[in-house]
């Protein structure tokens, strides 16, 4: 009787683990497809040729992963801003080696506009603002 019960529990556990792994694999595939589509849209926006698109993909993937990690690190204020700036500078340095001058200038201009749009969010989410709410 104990063997049957143990076998049943083991089988149920293996089934649940396999189902979770399958679900994770599907999510990973969807995430990879979304990242590829987003990168292709980005490459089209700046008129990248296929070689540039191939070379910029790992740069942007690394940057996005690092920024995601930074957001989950619970850094706030100047520490988060400083780390974010370092990551952006590293990305920009890498992209400058790949993009032509016009593409890079346009990218930097667009980045500055995006950063200005993000500033009010940062101000509203600062520790001082959260305390007053």
Describe the model:
The chain has 133 residues and is an all-alpha fold. It has two domains: 1-45; 48-133. Helix content is 89%, strand content 0%. It is built from five helices and no strands.
Structural class: mainly alpha
User: Which strand-content bin applies to the residues?
Assistant: under 5%
Task: Please provide the ordered H/E string of secondary-structure elements.
Answer: HHHHH
State the end-to-end CA separation: 60 Å
Low-pLDDT parts are 128-133
The counted number of beta strands is 0
Largest sheet: none
What Rg do the Cα atoms give? 22 Å
Query: What is the number of independent domains?
Result: 2
Counted by DSSP, the helix tally is: 5
Proportion of helical residues: over 70%
**Overall pLDDT confidence:** 78
* Assembly classification: single chain
């Amino acid at each position: 009787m104990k063997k049957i019960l143990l076998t049943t529990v083991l089988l149920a556990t293996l089934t649940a683990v396999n189902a979770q792994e399958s679900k994770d694999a599907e999510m990973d595939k969807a995430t990879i497809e979304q990242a590829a589509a987003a990168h292709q849209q980005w490459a089209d926006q700046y008129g990248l040729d296929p070689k540039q698109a191939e070379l910029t993909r790992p740069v942007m993937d690394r940057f996005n992963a690092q920024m995601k990690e930074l957001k989950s690190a619970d850094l706030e204020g100047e520490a988060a801003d400083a780390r974010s700036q370092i990551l952006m500078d590293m990305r920009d340095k890498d992209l400058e080696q790949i993009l032509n001058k016009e593409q890079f200038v346009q990218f930097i201009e667009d980045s500055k506009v995006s950063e200005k749009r993000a500033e009010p969010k940062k101000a509203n989410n600062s520790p001082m603002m959260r305390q007053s709410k």
